[in-house]
């Protein structure tokens, strides 16, 4: 759709103990950033949400998103896919992914929650609901042709078939697959919200991981992490995980209304977790944030570092296992809609040479945008997070 361009928005703080930091380094990173518009929505199908960028087994890049209608949640919501054959420079038109659900009931809404690439297979995790998040189910489907065709939907394991989003996977150094999940014990009474929408609030979130030691053939569930004592707490809990140098699994959790991200940690590779997550000092307005292992204890964070608003969109890097974040760079300072606009849901992968984070985000629920953020020079001998690196 859109050709690649030089990214806008460039305020930053740049300090790193690993690479020699100069203003020239920072200016060069900014110069090498890449961006392109994947989708620019128009009513009655303006919505762009839950954007996810992945490198596929055949070498193409795919962005999937929640679309259909002008907002969410709505019964017309569906999953859409756009493909790039030139590493993000140009993109095909968004097309609905046909999973057979809309043919059975056009009023069933679909939401993508993770696109996992393991060797030659892509696995898409999908939520379905009635347009309000009542009757909410989580499913998975496989593709062995890089997302061109998909298998019949299968239910997510155990209790996670109900009221669950399964999020970004990692592959640990010993070869296990870990998938973080946010599961809700119930949804609240359906109520009117605005613009003709109705909502059944997800209530009492529990977080943990699914673990597979056989390449995804079988799964075990670990963790039941809470972020609130109050069982009536309602809010999304989009979580993300990374493996640290000593094998600990670190998890960040969105906590609506708390103004910061929450944190939980497993010291035995994801097998056991604390009962409650704890507050961090990382500001967050109640929005999805994602973390990526860059080797050892070096971790990248894409997020909105603002307790009040989903803007700006920034890249932070920690070199000490998420204890401190000395590298902080604003990638996008504000929405194309201006200061009141929102920059949402960044999600992507680390390049094979550890030089870029390639991701998609939605700009004010209307545009799906590709962004390639140039990373600072890192120690090349460190092992990369194997989540979505190609």
Automatic annotation (TrEMBL):
Keyword Signal: yes
Domain Sialidase: 76-358
Gene3D superfamilies: 2.120.10.10
Residues in the signal sequence: 1-21
InterPro entries (UniProt xref): Sialidase, Sialidase_sf
GO MF annotations, alphabetized: exo-alpha-sialidase activity
Keywords for this protein: Glycosidase, Hydrolase, Signal
Superkingdom field: Bacteria
CDD domains cross-referenced by the UniProt entry: Sialidase_non-viral
Record-listed E.C. numbers: 3.2.1.18
One Pfam family named in its UniProt record: BNR_2
UniProt name for this protein: Sialidase
Lineage of the species this protein comes from: Bacteria, Pseudomonadati, Planctomycetota, Planctomycetia, Planctomycetales
